[in-house]
Write a structure and sequence with these properties.
The protein is mainly α and 122 residues long. Strand 2 and strand 3 form a beta hairpin. Helix 3 crosses helix 5 and helix 4 packs across helix 5.
Length: 122
């Protein structure tokens, strides 16, 4: 991404503008975060992601935890894996899933838990 920009209105000093442009995430990072947030916008995937932040499980056990069919869970797992939010490993005949070990995943996990603890005034 080009880090220079000619603003139509100069509300900041040139060095502030340069600092903002240098700190702006590149297109790849913006796309990765956008994809992750898009996937977690689905309640089923959010529930599965949260679960896998706390445990490693197979499809059948995940399905039991979230009260869904195994094919439906497999569909959601595929999307979460494509977005880089979860990883899998084979253990014999079973595939086990867990949250990926990345800064993005760790921050999303913490954010979800912070948001979930917010309660509206009575």
């Amino acid at each position: 991404m080009d880090k220079t920009v000619n603003l139509p209105h100069e509300h900041h000093a040139a060095d502030a503008q340069t600092h903002i442009m240098e700190a702006m995430p590149d297109d790849e990072m913006i796309r990765a975060v956008s994809d992750a947030l898009g996937q977690l916008g689905d309640p089923s995937r959010l529930r599965i992601f949260w679960l896998l932040c706390h445990t490693e499980e197979c499809v059948a056990d995940i399905a039991a935890y979230v009260h869904m069919s195994s094919p439906a869970v497999s569909h959601h797992l595929r999307l979460l894996k494509t977005a880089g939010l979860i990883v899998s490993r084979r253990d014999g005949k079973e595939m086990l899933y867990r949250a990926a070990d990345s800064c993005l995943v760790n921050e999303l996990h913490l954010t979800i838990e912070k948001i979930a603890e917010i309660s509206c005034p009575a």
